[in-house]
Amino acid sequence: MAYRPSAGRNQKGSSAPEEANLVPIMNVFLTIIPFLLMMIVVGQVALLALNFEGSASGGGGEGEGSGGGGDERNIEVIIVVKAQPNPGFLVKVTYDGKDIEDYPKTYANFRELDQGLKDLRNHPTRGQVLKDVTDIGILPEADVLYGVLLQTIDVSKTNGFSGVRYQEYFEGII
Hints:
six-stranded mixed beta sheet, Nucleotidyltransferase, domain 5, 37% helix, rod-shaped, 2 domains, alpha/beta
């Protein structure tokens, strides 16, 4: 009795193996990656908003006096961030509600602002008064870009002002 040859033995490698269809998985990654990047930015903004609440440690409260009495200092440092057409920074320092001599001062860019805050901290007489002040108020005008606001906060923190308070700008502040 003769049997027919098996079909598998007669097949030759006539077709190449099929490649996987990568289009659906690429589409998934093209939607997930931008979403994850967006969530990182949202998370950073939320953390930044937590820093704007202000800190519990006062910038010039008790414990600063030299020897016992009720010497409580009310020192406030404010940076007004100006928008276009005349961008820049205006630093205002008040002591018990009165402007300190030579202030407010204007600075045209971040380098000048950084140097101005360093000079304020290292001033022979004012530096002693401001050495324990850690709070600073940031008042951006309405059209200030977010990146400029963040760089202003960074410059403030590098100069020892760790308690950054965000305040609303109003026309009569200066």
